Amino acid sequence: MPKLIDAHRLAGPVPFDDLPEDPRPDMDRLGIDQALVTHTLSLYSDAQAGNEALFRLAGPRLIPVPVLVPAALEDPPAWDARMVRLCPRRHRFDLTGPATLRWLAELDVTVAVELGETTTAQLLALTARLPGQRVLLLNPGYRHLRAVAELMAEAPNVWLEIGTVNTQRGVEWLAGRFGAHRLVFGTGAPILDDCGPRFLLECLDRPADRDLIASGSLEALL
Amino acid sequence: MTPGVRILDAHGHLGTWPDFLIPDPTAEGMVELMDRLGVQAVGISHLLAVGPDARTGNRLAFEAAARHPGRFGVWQVYNPHHRNRLIAGGVWGVKLHPDVHECPLDDPRYEPVWELGLPVLAHGQTDSPWSDPALFAAVAARHPHVPLLMGHAGLWPHGFARAARLAAGHPNLFLETCGSQMTGRWIARLVELLGADRVVFGSDACFLDLRVGLGRVVLAPLAEADRALVLGGNLARILRLGDPA
């Protein structure tokens, strides 16, 4: 197994459960070397406060993914980040609005967005407006495979997190159509499960797919 | 994967489902995965039977079980509207889906199921008018001789702890672990709340991926003795399967 990177992990407290705030002990237990991490304060409280807490937490194993909230008449932040996260539904902005497009064009950084925060149609519109924009689609689930496949067929700069692609051989189905180089290991832990996706990764039909999904695809994306 | 541990999957399906794509809905694909993962047997109902045609779907499940002897146990679906015939032998038990059939678990139309006395696996969903865990507790109290598996342990994370509390007073009621919202952490919590002898591994494959469901138990923070009970020891006891061949 090559290096294993979780592309979707959270640090910090959540209001609805008692979950580990530091992801590293669970990462140790499951053999996950590094993680791209967003702070929960950015999702459940104040985005800026969460990003500040995130950068304080960041280190060799925890790669910061700050949350971007585009704003009209303002300049984008000057972060040292390889990926930023957008939450257009939660933070109530338009994924293809003028502020978002302007900021993304200026930042030239990979964008992570949960499917539940947008729609495949919106993502298709975003990638049409910014053809060079790289997107990692988080938490796509298993019920929208057909729509996700349409998006991936039309938008070659969209990558997919596999943690919730949880229908029988769904990951192999996607790898067969788009290549494992478009698929990325990620979990959404600790809110979502990390044990099942970690085990699935070990048991994929094709070992070559496993190596790409474990970290190769993500490293190429970033 | 788990040497020496008998793995029995309490909750499986074959076939397709209308509102999303299942890339591999076949019995043969399931057996290939089972062989690779060391899963001895999966209890199946056919999704056609869960949906509109219990008679044909049950026949398809029995045919799949006959093609792969010892690998599939059949949960025969009972549709309370169609009142399809149930058999008393050669099955793991009866599968109910109160939400799809829009008939609450405590409805008298299920009487033929309880009278049969076989183990029952039913979809369980917190806050559902059809399958809330409180309905399981009520039915378990009414039919203490019937082993009753609460599918998905109530499905939603906000209801898992309550499902365990409701099950605690009913030794014939078990929590089954499959579902898209379940986590390894929650499986360990359910074991702590209810006891390792009352939590049963299920995957929901092929609806969900067998590897994800199994991995949640294999990698959950559990003591090995507890993990062995959840993975298969409990179901073998409930179904009176005896020692593995």
Description:
The complex is a heterodimer of chains A (222) and B (245). In chain A, 38% of the residues lie in helices and 17% in strands. Chain A contains nine helices and nine strands. Chain A has one domain: Alpha-Beta Barrel (TIM Barrel). Chain A has a six-stranded parallel sheet. Chain A has a three-stranded parallel sheet with strand order 1-2-3. Chain A is globular and about 50 Å long. Chain A is α/β, with parallel strands linked by helices. Chain B has 245 residues and is of the alpha/beta class. Chain B has one domain: Alpha-Beta Barrel (TIM Barrel). Helices cover 40% and strands 16% of the residues of chain B. Chain B contains ten helices and eight strands. An eight-stranded parallel sheet of chain B has the order 1-2-3-4-5-6-7-8. In chain B, helix 6 packs parallel to helix 7. Chain B is globular, with a radius of gyration of 16 Å. The mean pLDDT of chain B is 97.
Order of SSEs of chain B, N→C? EHEHHEEHHEHEHEHEHH
Structural class of chain B: alpha/beta
Mean model confidence by pLDDT of chain B: 97
Count, helices of chain B: 10
Whole-number total of structural domains of chain B: 1
Counting helices, strands and paired strands, the structural category of chain A is: alpha/beta
> According to CATH, what is the class of chain A?
Alpha Beta
- CATH architecture heading of chain B: Alpha-Beta Barrel
- Tell me the distance between the termini of chain B: 19 Å
Query: What is the N-to-C order of secondary-structure elements of chain A (H for helix, E for strand)?
Result: EHEHHEEEHEHEHEHEHH
Q: Show the largest interface.
A: A-B, 32 and 36 residues
CATH homologous superfamily annotation of chain A: Metal-dependent hydrolases
Roughly how much helix do the residues of chain B carry, as a percent range?
25-40%
Which value, in Å, is the CA radius of gyration of chain B? Answer: 16 Å
Uncertain runs of chain A: none
- The CATH topology of chain B is TIM Barrel
Overall geometry of chain A comes to globular
First CA to last CA of chain A: what distance?
Answer: 20 Å
